[in-house]
Amino acid sequence: MKKITLVNKNASATVYDYAAHVTSWVGQSGHQRIFTSKQAIFEAPKAIRGGVPIIFPQFNEVGEFQRHGFARNVYWNKLDTQTSSAHFQLNSDAQTREIWPFEFSADYKVDLSAQGLSLSLSVKNTDSKPITFTVALHSYLQIKSLKTCSVSGVKNLSYWDNDGTDFSIRTKALTNELTFTDAIDRVYFDVKNDVVLDTGNGQLNISHSGFDDMVIWTPGKQAAKDMSDFADDEFDNMLCVEAAQIAKPITLLPNETWTGKQILTEVS
Ligand SMILES: O=P(O)(O)OC[C@H]1O[C@H](O)[C@H](O)[C@@H](O)[C@@H]1O
């Protein structure tokens, strides 16, 4: 697999052609902002543990196809690389049709600015019939410690906890700040505003467009032990804040294109 390094002023990022997977972003502050496990396996078709896996065409078990799709398990074509940006493409082929019987063309652009990282995914329906999918940019973010980090900006959002709760049940967030004690697997719906992650080493502003939902996930102490590609103590140093489209799957007519972006910016 090919590793591509992007640079802009004092910032740098790493992205692989395998899964178009971003595995590192060191911002101007000098802090690593993306978490990638020291036990991650860089070997197809295993998904790299950490970084930013692209979840397409199905999020988790929301649907009848492969859990978390296949985009994170295949090589993407590298179309263009500049000093601070890279462009990848994935087109349907015999392998993808076996898992998901539709024609599509997906483009992924990674842009490193001095302040931030912009991730943009587009999917075009190249089939002769409508296609429907769910999708996420599954960003693993580096934090100093789970117990002292927080996500602000969630007040009044409706969410679902993936802890056995029926998917139809929604809870409303009463406070603006989300803090953590251990594992969490939660989907917030209709997230229109930015959120701010206090990493313990400065704040990150997280914005998205084209996506309605936001997933907050971290495995916690026990599940971390059960993951072979994740070190036991790493649960304390990562939090996924994912831009996602889950509750209302995207349907594209032939030739239609959907675009979703997640933009991470260092605030302080
Ligand atoms: O272990 P993975 O297949 O990479 O999935 C990791 C996690 O992804 C998402 O964040 C889901 O909400 C979680 O339910 C899942 O455990």
Task: Explain the overall architecture.
The chain is mainly beta and 268 residues long. It has a single domain (3-266), classed as Beta-galactosidase, Chain A, domain 5, CATH 2.70.98.10. 5% of the residues lie in helices and 45% in strands. The chain has helices spanning 94-99, 220-226; strands at 3-8, 11-16, 22-26, 54-55, 77-81, 85-91, 104-112, 116-125, 131-137, 140-142, 150-152, 158-161, 171-172, 177-179, 184-189, 195-198, 203-209, 213-218, 238-252, 257-266. The strands form 3 sheets. It has a 9-stranded antiparallel β-sheet with strand order 5-6-7-8-20-17-16-11-14, with no helix packed on it. Strands 4, 9, 10, 12, 13, 15, 18 and 19 form an 8-stranded antiparallel β-sheet that branches. The structure holds 6-O-phosphono-alpha-D-glucopyranose. The site of 6-O-phosphono-alpha-D-glucopyranose (G6P) has 8 residues, from strand 18.
What descriptors fit this protein?
268 residues, mainly beta, Beta-galactosidase, Chain A, domain 5, nine-stranded antiparallel sheet, eight-stranded antiparallel sheet, 2 helices, binds 6-O-phosphono-alpha-D-glucopyranose
Question: Topology of this protein?
Answer:
Blueprint: E1 3-8, E2 11-16, E3 22-26, E4 54-55, E5 77-81, E6 85-91, H1 94-99, E7 104-112, E8 116-125, E9 131-137, E10 140-142, E11 150-152, E12 158-161, E13 171-172, E14 177-179, E15 184-189, E16 195-198, E17 203-209, E18 213-218, H2 220-226, E19 238-252, E20 257-266
6-O-phosphono-alpha-D-glucopyranose binds next to strand 18.
